[in-house]
Amino acid sequence: MGRPWRPQEGGKGMRGKLRARGWVWGVALLLAGCATTPGGDEPLGKAEDYYNLGVAYLNSGEPRRALPELTRAIEIAPRQAPYHRALGLAYYFDRNLPEAVKALQRAVELDPKFADAFTDLGRAYLEQGDLARAEQALKAALANSFYPTPQVAHFTLGTVYEQRGRLEEAAAQFRRAVDVDPDFANAYNSLGRVYLGQNKPALAVTSFEAASRLTPTVAVIQRNLGIAYFRAGKRSEARAALERALKLQPAGPGADEIRDLLGRLR
């Protein structure tokens, strides 16, 4: 009965993703006025103003407006790793992955302990399909025992393992992500998807229910929850979840499949 869906990215949805609780990575970790790296004795001057403005544009979901501000900041102070990381994120959210990778590589060259930049670099590699480099970058992020927000790295590494078919390792990383951040809805959704792949529907139900409590208006999660209920033999619960999914997404990609699944439950 169907495959569990992944949340869609790109386009207008990407901007909303910058702010949605439980689905966010990267930009929410940027703080204006915090550029201090191995080049910290470099005079910043006007560069800090450009950087802060670029971060403000990023955090408001306007990466294209952020790009010139961050470029100006780097022209003035080229050894500030946070500037390069912010530029990498701006390119990433502007869907220019090659330039995002270049900027993030420069950030970790300048600061080899910059865990957030390694996490972002891993994400960019993942979207390029370079799973080996993604795994390497994410492990580098998690090697920093002082990393205050490792849940995003755990989640992204779990996604890498899932795509490589290493489901036990993927599940372990998703569990670590929700251990650190119990409100990480996307990690619960991914964990449920892995459990279904392992033919563990009862565990999948528990994970999708957690994701549903956190984000009850996401059709993808309701659909996945319906599949998990069905595989666990809970047909009435499956029907209710799929009906919620269809109400949330009555048209567009996936709606016809939800109707088909509901028809099979009648």
Topology:
Layout: H1 11-17, H2 46-59, H3 63-76, H4 81-93, H5 97-110, H6 115-128, H7 131-142, H8 151-163, H9 167-180, H10 185-197, H11 201-214, H12 219-231, H13 235-248, H14 255-265
Sheet having the most strands: none
Number of strands: 0
- How much of the sequence is in beta strands? under 5%
Q: Which stretches of 5+ consecutive residues score pLDDT under 50? A: 5-29
Task: Kindly provide the radius of gyration, computed on alpha-carbon positions and rounded to a whole number of angstroms.
Answer: 20 Å
Helical percentage: 55-70%
Order of helices and strands: HHHHHHHHHHHHHH
Distance between the termini: 14 Å
Note the overall shape. Answer: elongated
**What's the tally of helices?**
14
Find the structural class using helix and strand composition. mainly alpha
Average the pLDDT over all residues and give the rounded result.
87
Q: Could you explain the architecture of this structure?
A:
The chain is mainly alpha-helical and 266 residues long. It has 14 helices and no strands. It has helices at residues 11-17, 46-59, 63-76, 81-93, 97-110, 115-128, 131-142, 151-163, 167-180, 185-197, 201-214, 219-231, 235-248, 255-265. Helix 4 packs parallel to helix 6 (115-128) and helix 10 (185-197) packs parallel to helix 12. The longest helix has 14 residues, at 46-59. The protein is elongated. It starts with 10 loop residues before the first helix and ends with a helix. The model is unreliable at 5-29 (pLDDT under 50).
